[in-house]
Design brief:
This protein is mostly beta strands and 113 residues long. Helices cover 8% and strands 44% of the residues. The chain has one helix and nine strands. A five-stranded antiparallel sheet has the order 1-2-5-6-9, with no helix packed on it. Strands 3-4 form a two-stranded antiparallel sheet. The chain has a two-stranded antiparallel sheet with strand order 7-8.
Length: 113
Amino acid sequence: GGWYPPLGGTGLSGLFEADAEYEDARFTDEFNDRMVDSYWLMNLRAGVESDRWDALIYVNNALDNDTIQSWSSGTAVVATAERFDQNLAIFPPDGFSIAPPPRQWGVRANVRF
């Protein structure tokens, strides 16, 4: 959501936006034996805008959350094969995980023609 208050008689508006995402702890495979933790991600933006341009400062992953978001053992065949016989697994049973990028900030500007 956002808030866009007028800035006096300048013809400009403020720009304050935030979005957040929450995902609860959950299992990551069909056997319900591998779980990832819950996590929050929050992004913030603040700036000014007019009819023709806008400029803002942003912060993505403002809480610098590094919680693993997903996990995979590879293909479904490998995940199933490793459950019954470790010698059948083509890849290591550990798999791989995906975490969000670290906190990032920057400046962005747009001009409309």
